[in-house]
Design goal:
By secondary structure, the protein is an alpha+beta fold. The chain is built from five helices and twelve strands. The chain has a single domain, classed as Nucleoside Triphosphate Pyrophosphohydrolase (Alpha-Beta Complex), CATH 3.90.79.10. The strands form two sheets. Strands 1, 2, 3, 4, 7, 8, 10, 11 and 12 form a nine-stranded mixed β-sheet that branches. It has a three-stranded antiparallel β-sheet with strand order 6-5-9.
Amino acid sequence: MVAPDARVRGPRVTDQPIRPAATVILARQTPAGPQILMGMRGASAVFMPSKYVFPGGAVDAADAQVPLARPLAAAQADLLADAPGPQALAAAAIRELWEETGLALGHPGAWPGPVPAGWQGFAARGLCPVADGLRFVFRAITPPGRPRRFDARFFLADATGIAGDLDDFSAACDELSHLHWIGLTEARRLDLPFITEVVLSEVSMILRGGDQPGVPFFDNSTSTPTFRRVMPG
């Protein structure tokens, strides 16, 4: 049964289905400290308009068929055991990063078969996607009542895995504007969605050498929010 929006103000809307999604926090080290890549969503976007976010989006059906030259590490796949296809999530993360930034997480190689939609430009560079550098660091389900809802897994990736110039965004689509590398402290001054602020705090801790006692999970799949940590095993 679809529940109505529970907010007091504003029009009542029917709830939306929860779609699996993947997001990438791409990080690089500089003499001044770690930097992450962020961009701003358009003012007319249905979901999080005018907010600075990490590259990411919904998993496509074709992502399950993408041949990863190096798949997600076994320990990371184990943490994603309850996901509908851990390797598909990894492929979606790499695809969204490519589409929204023009940066390719891959290495030279030939595709073993037809190239799926959304990957032609990636393959045209003579690259195959690699996922073994992705680290699952956060999970969040969008609360009820939002115009779109996602079960989003956030992956941290080192920019050394990118093939090409880290400052060349010429192949990016127009979904994100103002793409730029930014320090962790400066990023907190941007106009961020709440969940992005929370993820940024977690990532900042990791990049500064802190330990993560399990992957944080903000579960808003029902009207009663819960928080827990995804543990190995």
